[in-house]
Design a protein that fits this description.
The protein has about 220 residues and is mainly alpha-helical. It has one domain. About 85% of the residues lie in helices and about 0% in strands. The radius of gyration is 17 Å and the shape is globular. The N and C termini lie far apart (about 55 Å). The relative contact order is 0.15. InterPro entries: Peptidase_PrsW_arch/bac (IPR023596), PrsW (IPR026898).
Length: about 220
């Protein structure tokens, strides 16, 4: 049991620590980051229940539609909802990169509890694969969500609404593509590897741009 919990928690905490420590100018309060992590974890049970009901009731006849609505939309929209209504207006959200820290915290809270439950059900031998794919992908969706939410926070007028819209729609799209690759292709590894490499590149590029914006604002 201890081995499963440790294996389930370790990748999430490692990724959260990585993105947290990349905030070189003004680290966010650890308590607030952990609170965001816990809020993300609390989303797991209601979302799993909704997904179970949708599957049992056969609401979606198309696997692609189920993947987009019941997985991509539900998970990313509710993570965004928590992020927007608990962090967006918070006084500590005062720099562009802060959105990434809190976006990653919410996403990894969700991914970590989901990972622990999966390992309890299927065995600790899946821990490495889960760390490389589901946990890291959730972290990267959180980076992208937080980046665009930060862009919206520090934009004016109509641009603010545009970036807030992008902050939830892009992660939903990327998550749906991720699950479609897993479920729809027999040789999914040949597609997933370049997709994940592209996702890492895209997310890290956004994180770097957010840090550059902080540096520019401090120098100006």
């Amino acid at each position: 049991m201890i081995a499963i919990i440790s294996a389930g928690i370790a990748p999430g905490l490692a990724l959260l620590s990585y993105f947290y420590l990349r905030d070189q100018y003004e680290s966010e309060p650890v308590i607030l980051v952990l609170r965001s992590f816990i809020f993300g974890a609390l989303l797991v049970f209601p979302i799993m229940f909704i997904q179970y009901v949708l599957e049992v009731e056969g609401v979606f006849t198309s696997e692609t539609l189920y993947t987009f609505v019941a997985v991509g939309f539900l998970e990313e929209f509710f993570k965004w909802f928590v992020l927007f209504f608990t962090i967006y207006q918070h006084v500590e959200f005062n720099e562009h990169y802060d959105g990434i820290v809190y976006g990653v915290a919410v996403s990894l809270g969700f991914a970590t509890l989901e990972n622990i439950l999966y390992l309890f059900a299927n065995g600790v031998e899946y821990a490495l694969g889960r760390a490389i794919l589901p946990v890291s992908s959730h972290a990267l969706f959180g980076v992208i969500m937080g980046y665009y939410l930060g862009k919206g926070k520090f934009s004016e007028g109509s641009n603010r609404k545009k970036w807030i819209l992008v902050s939830w729609s892009v992660p939903i799209l990327l998550h749906s593509v991720y699950d479609t690759i897993l479920l729809s292709y027999m040789n999914w590894k040949y597609i997933m590897v370049p997709f994940m490499l592209l996702l890492w590149w895209f997310a890290l590029r956004k994180a770097k741009k957010a840090r550059v914006k902080i540096l520019d604002s401090r120098l100006s």
